[in-house]
């Protein structure tokens, strides 16, 4: 067996030194990066709102689709060709106004025929009455002529009525919402020609939970927003309340009415309604967007200074107070941190809720970004703290 040569031994030693140097460099670089970032806590950007006093109402909010108070589908009562249209979609009409005209030639001829027969029978009846008074005509004969006259009068009235049906008239006041036929169409009996909607008032029907049964009353004011006119509120009132609760849904029907002289509200619009049934003029309130509701508790994330939060937070155990000889100085406390606070709320409307316990006037609560923070998270307040 041969001993290793000097050149082989030197190569092995050099290879080992290279690996040791690489290990030392890696360790030094890793420790340096860790130390550099350990003292810089990450902050979460948030937006806040101040706890302030304001008027607030206890209210019920819901959604509903607007519908016309009354509507009518105008149908033909006689058949005939459509000769004229006097209205179009969007036109306002009054009850009894002529909307369209059907061909009336056949109806006029029938009326003329019935009228001629009526005149003949009136003359026959007059002569038969004279003859009956002179005992020249029996009772049965006189009665037959009288019955024939009454029958012909009914036929004449029917012919006149059918002639009037060739003029299509509006049964209610309202607006023409749909025209379903064109000039020249042959119209069948009971065929729909127009739809009329009465938008004064418009109705919105809410399905309200049973717990609100004792808080809502007929005549209470209702405010509504619609998507097409988002910056304006429309005022209305509760018109009627159903006296029964639907056992399947646990709700009852509340019908609200809205009158809009400007005509901007339309049937079919989607409305967001709010019924205010109580009010406080000087309540401590926060935006509804700040609320955290979980596990049967209501809380918010308030922002406090990092130093104050550290002073209020006790160490986890006694060992936390001991400082090792080689420990570095603790990182500076962040300027602001999030602190979870339990609160008790009172009245609430669509945008704000009243705070009864847990916050004081001037405190600030997180409204945007609260999902990304926990108790003690360092935060960056975008709009500043006042």
Q: Could you characterize what this model shows?
A:
The protein has helices at residues 6-38, 105-133, 139-164, 306-312, and strands at 44-50, 52-75, 80-85, 92-93, 98-102, 167-169, 174-179, 186-187, 192-209, 221-226, 229-241, 251-258, 270-287, 292-294, 297-305, 336-342, 344-348, 352-357, 364-368, 379-381. The protein has 386 residues and is α+β, with helices and mostly antiparallel strands. Among the domains are: 40-54 and 283-317 and 331-381, conserved putative lor/sdh protein from methanococcus maripaludis s2 fold, CATH 2.40.420; 59-68 and 200-281, Beta Barrel (Elongation Factor Tu (Ef-tu), domain 3); 104-165, Helix Hairpins, CATH 1.10.287. Strand 17 and strand 18 (352-357) form a beta hairpin. Helix 2 (105-133) packs antiparallel against helix 3. The chain is elongated. The model is unreliable at 1-38 (pLDDT under 50).
Write the layout of secondary structure elements.
Blueprint: H1 6-38, E1 44-50, E2 52-75, E3 80-85, E4 92-93, E5 98-102, H2 105-133, H3 139-164, E6 167-169, E7 174-179, E8 186-187, E9 192-209, E10 221-226, E11 229-241, E12 251-258, E13 270-287, E14 292-294, E15 297-305, H4 306-312, E16 336-342, E17 344-348, E18 352-357, E19 364-368, E20 379-381
Parallel strand pairs: 1-20
Antiparallel strand pairs: 1-19, 2-9, 2-13, 3-5, 3-8, 4-7, 5-6, 7-9, 9-12, 10-11, 10-13, 11-12, 13-18, 14-15, 15-16, 17-18
Helix pairs in contact: 2-3
């Amino acid at each position: 067996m041969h001993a290793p040569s000097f050149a082989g031994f030197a190569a092995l030693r050099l290879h080992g030194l290279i690996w040791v140097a690489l290990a030392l460099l890696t360790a030094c670089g890793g420790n340096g990066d860790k130390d550099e970032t350990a003292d810089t806590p990450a902050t979460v950007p948030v937006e806040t709102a101040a706890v302030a006093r304001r008027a607030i109402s206890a209210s019920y909010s819901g959604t509903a689709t607007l519908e016309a108070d009354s509507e009518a589908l105008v149908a033909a009562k006689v058949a005939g060709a459509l000769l004229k249209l006097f209205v179009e979609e969007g036109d306002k009409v009054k009850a009894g106004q002529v909307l369209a005209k059907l061909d009336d030639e056949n109806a006029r001829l029938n009326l003329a025929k019935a009228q001629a027969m009526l005149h003949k029978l009136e003359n026959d009846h007059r002569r038969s009455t004279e003859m009956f008074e002179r005992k020249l005509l029996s009772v049965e004969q006189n009665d037959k002529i009288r019955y024939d006259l009454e029958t012909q009068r009914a036929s004449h009235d029917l012919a006149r009525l059918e002639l009037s049906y060739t003029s299509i008239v509006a049964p209610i006041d309202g607006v023409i919402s749909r025209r379903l036929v064109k000039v020249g169409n042959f119209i069948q009996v009971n065929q729909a020609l127009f739809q009329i909607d009465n938008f004064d008032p418009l109705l919105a029907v809410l399905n309200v939970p049973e717990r609100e049964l004792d808080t809502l009353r007929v005549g209470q004011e209702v405010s509504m927003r619609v998507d097409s006119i988002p910056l304006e509120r429309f005022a209305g009132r509760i018109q009627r309340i159903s006296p029964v609760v639907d056992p399947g849904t646990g709700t009852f029907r509340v019908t609200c009415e809205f009158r809009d002289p400007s005509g901007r509200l339309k049937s079919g619009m989607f409305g967001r309604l709010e019924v205010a049934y109580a009010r406080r003029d000087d309540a401590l309130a926060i935006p509804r967007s700040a609320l955290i509701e979980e596990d049967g508790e209501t809380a918010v994330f308030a922002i406090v200074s990092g130093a104050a939060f550290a002073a209020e937070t006790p160490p986890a155990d006694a060992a936390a107070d001991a400082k090792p000889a080689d420990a570095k100085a603790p990182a500076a406390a962040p300027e602001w941190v999030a602190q979870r606070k339990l609160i008790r709320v009172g009245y609430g409307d669509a945008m704000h809720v009243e705070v009864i316990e847990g916050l004081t006037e001037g405190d600030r609560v997180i409204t945007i970004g609260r999902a990304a923070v926990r108790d003690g998270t360092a935060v960056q307040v975008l709009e500043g703290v006042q």
